[in-house]
Design brief:
The chain has 18 helices and 18 strands. It is an alpha/beta fold and 502 residues long. The protein has two domains: 2-221, Rossmann fold (3-Layer(aba) Sandwich), CATH 3.40.50.10260; 231-497, UDP-N-acetylmuramoyl-L-alanine:D-glutamate ligase (3-Layer(aba) Sandwich). It is elongated, with a radius of gyration of 26 Å.
Amino acid sequence: MKILSAEQMRLTDQATIQNEPISSTDLMERAADRCVKRILEEKPAADLEFWIFCGIGNNGGDGLVIARLLLGLGFKVHTFILEFSTNYSPDFNINLERLRDQGYEPDLIRNASDCPDIADSCWIIDAIFGTGLSRAPGGWLREVIAQINRSPSRVISIDFPSGLFSEVPVEDPESIVKASLTLTFQQPKLAFLLPSAYQFVGEWEILDIGLSNDFIEQLEDCHELIDLKLARQLFRQKGRFDHKGTAGHSLLLGGSFGKIGAVILASKGALRAGSGLVSVYVPKCGYDPLQTANPEVMVEVDDEQYIQFFNFRTKPTAIGIGPGLGTHIKTKKGFVKFLKSHSDPLVLDADALNIISEHDEIKELIPAKSILTPHPREFERLAGPWANDFEKLQKQQEFARRYNCVVILKGAYTSITQGPNIIFNGSGNPALATAGSGDVLTGILTGLLAQGYDSLPASMLGVFLHGRAADLGIENEESQESFIASDILKFYGRAVKELYSR
């Protein structure tokens, strides 16, 4: 699913108006109708009051239509126009007159003192600003927004929380509406996927308002959000005559004394991902635990308590390195020597990333098209600190371009890039914030790479299925608190079944 910029959304609106065809006011009517239907799904009490705050642009016009529709349903509605200019948009004016034709006159707010005390038990509809905001609201506008935020009432933002920028960092947190729920139109917005915006966006949902999908599909240079539809396009189901020899051979290198569990989880992840064969290369202290915990894998060993030689005999089709590896000086030396002699793509995680981050010359040894899976702290070690989430994304793109690799930056809406655009993951939940979750992901990615998936599709599919398994675990048995990394393996098969062709 494409993530559109404010300008791309404006062009999509225009294309829909011209090609459907539909008038801009009828399109606004349709959008507001979708919002009201969604609001009614919350089952508001019949005596609930709606306080609707409208700007003077098209977002405010949406608010006026919502006010008219709610009034028509018998709800008590208080509507306020924040008149920071008399330059009302044409569609706003049309809908203001339609509201007046019903005998209803909104209140004007021209300074902070015009804003009455907000009732504690109402629902607030925020339709002040949309996605086109170019500067932070100041003066009395900022004071009114602060008053909305002080209210304990539920706040629903229409399309975008007022005061938030869609593609640049937050300047003044006190000038942004803090929504409980944001109802956005047609496509996700970039800001919704970034940690810094969560306190303003709250939960968010996409409402299909019938914008031109043909026009959206031909847009270029878009970020994307992986959903079930995209995952199905990436997935390759095994054929009737496939066997373990044609389904790839994964090799996981990792483990050190006290950290053998990490590579056990990773090897299980590779098996669950469909790798026909899975081998592990561990220190000798990991031999018995591996053979006991995961009898499906083959085991080779190195030194007694940590890996240092990297002299495995297996001929794998993909290699994942890092889970539980440790950073012993001999491990570092052996790993760097291995990188100098290896040119095929690798999956690099955990301590492999920590070793790489120590010197820029080691980064230059990363094989082309390798997959790196850092969490934010590991990525900071690799790429340096950032001032805000947008700069973090830029660093991620720059790192991927410079070292010709795929960078998977783990977190809520995990971001994936090979350089040009960012792909965000639409699956997963906070249950994945548990020890070993990343080790399982490393195994899944290695298993997909071993089966012949290219690095970027393997990354997109692996991250989506990893997150979807967690979603299914929460839906069926576990809580976010009780969920553990082994549960990803438990529900992974169900996640894959959702991708089967029907």
